[in-house]
Amino acid sequence: MNIREKQEAWEKAYLSPYASLSSESKGRDREEPQDDIRPVYQRDRDRILHCKAFRRLKHKTQVFLAPLGDHYRTRLTHTLEVAQIARTISRALRLNEDLTEAIALGHDLGHTPFGHAGETVLNRICPEGFRHNEQSVRVVEVLEKEGKGLNLTKEVRDGMLNHSIALMPATLEGRVVRISDKIAYINHDIDDALRGRIITEDMLPKEYTDVLGSSIKERLNVMIHDTIDSSMNQPDIHVSKKVGDAMIGMREYMFEHVYRHSKAKDQEEKAKNMLEVLYGYFLSHPDKMPPEYVKMIEEGVWSPERIVCDYISGMSDQYSITLYEDLFIPKAWTIC
Question: Which phi and psi (to 5°) does residue 250 adopt?
């Protein structure tokens, strides 16, 4: 019995009856030999961690566009916080921690530059629409490894696709990531808004802080414990009505006072306009995109609009700004 087989045997003996066992995965689109050390979900976790799209998350907006400060969240730090929360909950519930972590690390790979502002503009101008959860799956199925994709298991891709609030993953591990995403962004967005002096702690509605707590630490503790307590030995992932209502209320408060706040969002229209101009330019000049995208257009499997969306959505904030400047901002003339 090799290391992987021992790990799979441990899962069968120890994990919850509601957990997703590595040995019972629905598999990959392309069959591969099993690894002698790592079960399938651990391999998926590693593939996501080492892919190019994951590295680009460090330069993509979470809430604040290109903030001047080292301590504001980026899409990468958000992803890591989601993974940490999700692993804590999964471990407590005896779910498959490898599957949970793989989904968490991959759930936002398809996010655009400038956060939801970029997603909004691409969804508006692309005839096929654009949603970051669907793009995350497209990244791992089509775009990574020069069109070969990462060949992840169906369970990981399902969790990535269905992590949004209106959707529901098939596995409990995916559902843990879905709620952990909300726990993470409610708390770290409050923290960033406090740091940015958009709000103060005493401005948060008392009806919600009385339930969730009056500090980041307290709120994380309450939400994580409530999820674990409400979901223990259950075939689904829940929060209590009291905590769930407070989370919804706090989220609505953040939309009104932070996410749509002029101080946080006063550069969004510029970012949207810039991405729209880039989209139009590359649609008219597809040969100016990198070779892998040009090849995709020549192969004709996907529409030019979709491929241009792929290229733009993969950009980091700073790369898109630099590219726009190179293409459209005149430079001072100098003697060579």
Answer: -70, -40
In 3D space, the residue among 287, 292, 278, 290 whose CA is nearest the CA of residue 326 turns out to be 278
Helix H, strand E, coil C: the string for 133-202 is: HHHHHHHHHHHCCCCCCCCCCHHHHHHHHCCCCCCCCCCHHHHHHHHHHHHHHHHHHHHHHHHCCCCCHH
Whole-angstrom Cα distance, residue 94 to residue 88?
A: 10
Q: What is the DSSP letter of 240?
A: -
- The pair of structure tokens assigned to 145 is 């490894």
pLDDT single digits (tens) 251-304: 999 999 988 876 667 788 999 999 999 999 999 999 999 999 999 999 999 999
Pull the structure tokens for residue 330.
């005149």
Digit-coded pLDDT (tens) for 43-80 = 999 999 999 999 999 999 887 776 666 788 999 999 99
Q: Which two tokens stand for residue 67?
A: 């903030």
Reported pTM: 0.95
